[in-house]
Amino acid sequence: MALPVDILAESQGIRLFNKWSYEDVEVKDISLTDYIQIRNPVYLPHTAGRFSTKRFRKAQCPVVERLTNSLMMHGRNNGKKLMAVRIVKHAFEIIHLLTDQNPIQVLVDAIINTGPREDSTRIGSAGTVRRQAVDVSPLRRVNQAIALLTIGTRESAFRNVKKGSSNSYAIKKKDELGKYFFAIVINTDDNECDDIKY
């Protein structure tokens, strides 16, 4: 059964919180286009979807809803999604006032800037454990970026992430992961990697 024409026409004008359009939002990193979901617009970041039932299905969850879900942390905030939606709405209004840009685009750019490209993993069993440099998959980059953003938000660093400022919590953590990766690649000690500048 096909949808009526007036409903299809209305779907083109869906705006987040009835304010911000999804149409001009673009993902500038081609590797993350499949994992930052902005193609299916929603009015609210509260779809009640079952995005954790299968592997990789969380990539289909709207990116603003993923941000909202990650705000519901630390025991006392668990399950309070309406409160998290309200916080995101107020934060987006502040971002719009400060930058005069679409807050959805600012969020997408912040996720791209914050996601670490390289990391290290532990190789070996029991006795000898050594670190091995690895690349980070696109989905994990998005997951870690959203987690770092929400942790950094608690430390009031959200506004600096878009500019790539180094005093942002999320950017600091990304650079720290990069230093470990770089130290492993060139076989230096962890003490020497503190002096590395990018």
Automatic annotation (TrEMBL):
Keywords: Ribonucleoprotein, Ribosomal protein. It comes from the Eukaryota. PROSITE patterns: RIBOSOMAL_S7 (PS00052). InterPro entries: Ribosomal_uS7 (IPR000235), Ribosomal_uS7_CS (IPR020606), Ribosomal_uS7_dom (IPR023798), Ribosomal_uS7_dom_sf (IPR036823), Ribosomal_uS7_euk/arc (IPR005716). The keyword Ribosomal protein applies. GO terms for biological process: translation. Residues 40-175 form the Small ribosomal subunit protein uS7 domain. One of its GO terms (cellular component) is small ribosomal subunit. GO terms for molecular function: RNA binding; structural constituent of ribosome. NCBIfam families: uS7_euk_arch. PANTHER family: RIBOSOMAL PROTEIN S7. Belongs to the universal ribosomal protein uS7 family. This is 11487_t:CDS:1. It comes from Diversispora eburnea.
